Each structure stands twice: as C-alpha cells, then as structure tokens.
Amino acid sequence: MNKKFIIITLLLGAITVLMVGWSVSRGKMFDFNESELAKKMEGAPFQVKVPTKVPFEDMELYKHKYSSEEIEFTLFNADKEFLTVRAVKEEMEYPEEIKKKEMTIGSDGHGQYIPDYAGNRIISWQNEDLFYELAYSYKFSPGEVSRGQLMKMAESFR
C-alpha cells in the first residue's frame, strides 16, 4: 500500500510538472530573423510586411513564391511546424460555412480568425492596400498554437 501511494504520488507530480511547463512555454514568442526572407523577396513585384515574432524557435524559410498578384512564403523549424503567410491584392474569401470570428489586430487593424479550416488555424487581415493570411498547419490539433500567439505574430509584421 505504501509503495503504491508513493508511485501514484510521483506520477501525479511528474504529470503536473509537465502540464505547467507546457502551458508556460505555449504562449511564448520568439524573434524571427527575416534577413534571408528579405533577400529572397528582393525581386518580388510589390513589398510586403514580414513577421518579427513567431510562436516557435528557430523558424527558417522553407519555400517562397510570388506573382504579380500574390506573395507567399512558408516558415518551418526542426520539429516540422509550418507557418504560411500570403499577401494578396484582393480580399481572400472563405466558404460561408466556415466558422469565423471578427478580431482586432493591433490598435486599429481588423481581421478574421478561423480556428480550423483544411488543417490550418488562420488569421486574415488587411494592412494598407494588401490582404494578409497567416496559416498555421497543425500536426495533431488546432490548439497547438493559440489564437493569441497568431495574433501576436500578425501584430509583429513590419
């Protein structure tokens, strides 16, 4: 009985430590060095803002493409966490049945938050004459990155 109690107590303690550590690190934001991205975008037909903060450490440019109407780039890290940013000249449309929530980005920006669409958690907003979409491609569940983290990333665009 005594041994059983000690083992259960140790297991509960370990689970508590893991949960607290996960919740503390979950909301953390990391600096993003956009120099490689800026270099790759030198030939783009129009200038876009890029994030300075990301929800994961060591994010790097995975791929990028651009046309006269759209610029898209994807960031990733060693844990295979992907964030895709699109900037377009025309407002993006999503199916009507998709659950969307209006939100404020920064002091005066307005956008939409889409908790789960085609394996992505999305924030879209307008900044000056461009429309931006920030999509986190989750591995297991949309909750891997919070709405707040995506909003902080969107607010960091410079």
Account of the protein in words:
The protein is α+β, with helices and mostly antiparallel strands and 158 residues long. The protein has a single domain, classed as Protein Transport Mog1p, Chain A. It has a seven-stranded antiparallel β-sheet. The longest helix is centred in the first third of the chain and has 25 residues. It is elongated and about 70 Å long.
Task: Give a summary of the structure in a few sentences.
This protein has three helices and nine strands, in the order H-E-H-E-E-E-E-E-E-E-E-H. By secondary structure, the protein is α+β, with helices and mostly antiparallel strands. It has a single domain, classed as Protein Transport Mog1p, Chain A (3-Layer(aba) Sandwich).
Main traits of this protein?
single chain; 158 residues; alpha+beta; Protein Transport Mog1p, Chain A; seven-stranded antiparallel beta sheet; two-stranded antiparallel ribbon; 3 helices
Sequence-ordered SSE layout with sheet pairings:
Blueprint: H1 2-26, E1 30-31, H2 35-40, E2 53-54, E3 60-66, E4 70-76, E5 82-88, E6 101-105, E7 109-117, E8 120-127, E9 130-137, H3 147-155
Antiparallel strand pairs: 1-2, 3-4, 4-5, 5-9, 6-7, 7-8, 8-9
**Biggest sheet, spatial arrangement of strands:** 3-4-5-9-8-7-6
Helix-and-strand structural type = alpha+beta
Number of domains: 1
User: What's the tally of helices?
Assistant: 3
Helix and strand sequence = HEHEEEEEEEEH
The radius of gyration is: 19 Å
CATH architecture: 3-Layer(aba) Sandwich
In total, the number of strands is 9
State which percent range the strand residues make up: 25-35%
How would a crystallographer describe the biggest sheet? 7 strands, antiparallel
State the shape. Answer: elongated
The third-level CATH topology is: Protein Transport Mog1p, Chain A
The CATH class is: Alpha Beta
Distance between the termini: 61 Å
Mean pLDDT across residues: 89
Poorly predicted ranges (pLDDT <50, ≥5 residues)?
A: 17-24
The helical percent reads: 25-40%
